[in-house]
């Protein structure tokens, strides 16, 4: 077999399909492996470059193959798709991966360590617990409304509602028993959420980069932690503009014939991180509109001429670029650069 310069590997739960090429870009390897055969096969292979889609399980395989001396490159599926030929199958997918990773303009996803992957679980579990708590709170309010007990929306309104239900002797005994079950489940979720958030804050306090990011207005511990976790290699982006575009905070470009046509934001990249950056920017804009705090001339002029939602996206874009600069250069946030206007 001629020397293999790179291998595209299409992964699944049980079947892995390989497509390798030599220096002349000729196919020299087409092979199908079971899950148990993958590591044994690559352990016998000289070190080479392996390309995979960034999908479920790809980080694990990247770490395992890296231990065997191979260089693993992960690619976003939407960037690989144009290189997959017609009549899609596993072999064509592997061939498309092999072709895509050889393009000079291809962008790759950094491989995360096991510790970074474990830290990411904190944010995912926190979001899941918040969603279940919201669902359970709505369930409690909905059932209570059927008995004439109304409560406003909000996490802090659920426990007072449960207390009113417990004191209401007009409710049927069965209903009170079931509300106790719901209340017990709600309290359990609150306790678990508190434990996860404590672990998240401890992780944030132990990370120097996260502490520097938290100095930026609109970025708190949660957003700073997610930025660090989800951007293990900020130098993978050429500039802050590329980082903001990766997050989907730039407008869609559909220009042709010399005419510029910009639309809504692309919403590419990580949805949770983009959502949190916009929420943080919205909070800053609300304070600026009420005349509270010190804000840059740029922001004050922006909210005068743009609707609040457009201003929030623009501010989120700028914050993302600032965050990239701090992560890439190891700098701290400089308030003086934002040209704050003294409060009157």
Structural commentary:
There is one protein chain. The protein is α/β, with parallel strands linked by helices and 344 residues long. The protein is 53% helix and 11% strand. A five-stranded mixed sheet has the order 3-2-1-4-5. Strand 2 and strand 3 form a beta hairpin. Helix 6 runs antiparallel to helix 7. The longest helix is centred in the middle third of the chain and has 34 residues. It is globular and about 80 Å long.
Name the descriptors:
344 residues, alpha/beta, five-stranded mixed sheet, two-stranded antiparallel sheet, 13 helices, 53% helix, 11% strand, globular, disordered C terminus
SSE layout:
Blueprint: E1 6-10, E2 15-21, E3 27-34, H1 38-43, E4 49-53, H2 58-67, E5 71-75, H3 77-80, H4 90-101, H5 114-145, H6 158-167, H7 173-206, H8 208-213, H9 221-230, H10 240-246, E6 251-253, E7 262-265, H11 271-289, H12 297-305, H13 308-329
Amount of helix? 40-55%
Q: Tell me about the biggest sheet?
A: 5 strands, mixed
Distance between the termini: 77 Å
By DSSP, the count of extended strands is 7
The rough form would be described as: globular
How many alpha or pi helices?
Answer: 13
Structural class by helix and strand composition: alpha/beta
Protein name: Transposase
Pfam family, one: Transposase_20
Domain Transposase IS116/IS110/IS902 C-terminal: 211-287
Domain Transposase IS110-like N-terminal: 7-143
